[in-house]
Design goal:
alpha/beta
C-alpha cells in the first residue's frame, strides 16, 4: 500500500489538489524571511498582541510576541509556545493564528519567543534562546500579569523538541516550575532510526528534509549529541511535567513520539496521547477539514482541562 492510500480520505483530497511543486529544504530556508504575521488577516478583536525584546545570555535581543485577552483578568494562566520548522525555518509570527484559540478558549497569555535558526545558528542557539525565554517568563510574571505557578510549555514538531528539552533541563538544573507540557508530534530522534522515519512523500515534512535539518542543527557537535539537542537520548524521564501529545499515523515522527509516550508512562509521568488514523505531519493546521479541526479542538480542550488539573 502506498503512502497516499494510508492517508485520511479528506487529507488525500487536499494533497491531491496541491501543486506538484514541493520545495527543497534549502529553498524553504531561502524564503523564510518572507513569512510574517499580518494582523489584517487575523481576527484580533478580543486579543492583544504585544512585542517585547528580551536580552539573551550572549547579549542577543530576542523578539518575543505576547498574545493576551484584550480584557484584563486577574493573574492567570500562561503558555510558552515554541514554533515548529525543523530548527531551520519558522518564526513567532506564523504561530499567532494558531495560538489564538488558547488565548480565547483557555483564557491564557501565550508567549511565543523567537529562536535563532540553523544553519546560521546551530545548536545550542535555539535551545538556549528557548530556555532563556522560560526564565524571562517566570521572572517577569508580574509584568506579564500571569501566575508563575501556572505556566505550561508547548510546541509543534521542532517546537516540541524544544519544549521537552527546556523542561528536562529545568528539571535537572532547578529551573522554573512547569505545570504541564504539550509537545505535539515532536522532532526527537536525530538518528532517524524508527520505521516511520522512512516516509518520503514530498508534500509533507519527510525523511529527506528531516535528515538535512538535523545535519544543519547539529553541525558543531561532532557526534557528541546531548539530550537537550535530541531528547530521545534522555535516559531518565522521571519528574517530567504531566504531558499531552498527539500525532497522525502518516507522520514520520509517529514511532519516536510513541516511544516518548512509552518512556513517560514507564516513569509514572501522567501522560495522555492521541493517535489519529490517516493524519500527516501538522494535519490539524489544514483548514476546512473536519477531521483536522477535531484534532485541534481536542488539543484545546485538553489544555484547558490540564490548566484546571495541574495548575496551582
Amino acid at each position: 500500500m502506498t503512502f497516499t492510500q494510508w492517508l485520511h480520505p479528506d487529507l488525500k483530497k487536499y494533497f491531491d489538489s496541491l501543486s506538484n511543486f514541493s520545495p527543497t529544504l534549502d529553498e524553504m530556508i531561502a524564503t523564510r524571511e518572507m513569512i510574517h504575521y499580518d494582523a489584517q488577516n487575523l481576527n484580533l478583536q478580543d486579543v492583544r498582541v504585544e512585542e517585547h525584546y528580551v536580552k539573551m545570555r550572549d547579549g542577543f535581543q530576542n523578539r518575543v510576541l505576547v498574545c493576551r485577552p484584550a480584557k484584563v483578568h486577574a493573574k492567570g494562566r500562561a503558555m510558552l509556545w515554541f514554533h515548529g520548522g525543523g530548527m531551520v525555518i519558522g518564526n513567532p509570527d506564523n504561530s499567532v493564528g494558531y495560538v489564538l484559540d488558547f488565548v480565547r478558549q483557555c483564557n491564557a497569555v501565550v508567549v511565543i519567543p523567537t529562536y535563532r535558526l540553523a544553519p546560521e545558528f546551530p545548536y545550542p542557539y535555539a535551545f538556549h534562546d528557548c530556555y532563556d525565554s522560560l526564565l524571562w517568563l517566570s521572572e517577569n510574571a508580574e509584568l506579564l500579569n500571569i501566575n508563575r505557578s501556572n505556566i505550561a510549555t508547548a510546541g509543534a514538531s521542532a517546537g516540541g523538541n524544544l519544549c521537552i528539552a527546556v523542561n528536562l533541563f529545568a528539571r535537572d538544573h532547578h529551573g522554573p516550575k512547569v505545570s504541564f507540557q504539550c509537545p505535539i508530534y515532536p522532532m526527537l530522534d536525530y538518528r532517524n532510526s524508527f520505521p516511520s522515519n522512512e516516509i518520503s512523500y514530498p508534500k509533507v515534512w519527510n525523511r529527506e528534509k528531516n535528515e538535512l535539518a538535523w545535519q544543519y542543527y547539529l553541525q558543531q557537535l561532532n557526534g557528541n549529541i546531548p539530550y537537550t539537542a535530541s531528547p530521545i537520548l534522555c535516559d531518565d524521564w522521571r519528574n517530567s511535567p504531566p504531558t499531552y501529545t498527539f500525532i497522525g499515523t502518516c507522520d514520520l515522527f509517529r514511532d519516536e513520539t510513541m516511544y516518548f509516550v512509552q518512556e513517560l508512562t514507564k516513569a509514572n509521568v501522567p501522560t495522555e496521547f492521541h493517535l489519529y488514523n490517516g493524519g500527516t505531519h501538522g494535519f490539524e493546521m489544514i483548514p476546512n477539514i473536519p477531521f483536522a479541526q477535531h484534532a485541534k479542538k481536542q488539543f484545546i480542550q485538553t489544555v484547558n482541562s490540564y490548566y484546571e488539573r495541574y495548575g496551582i
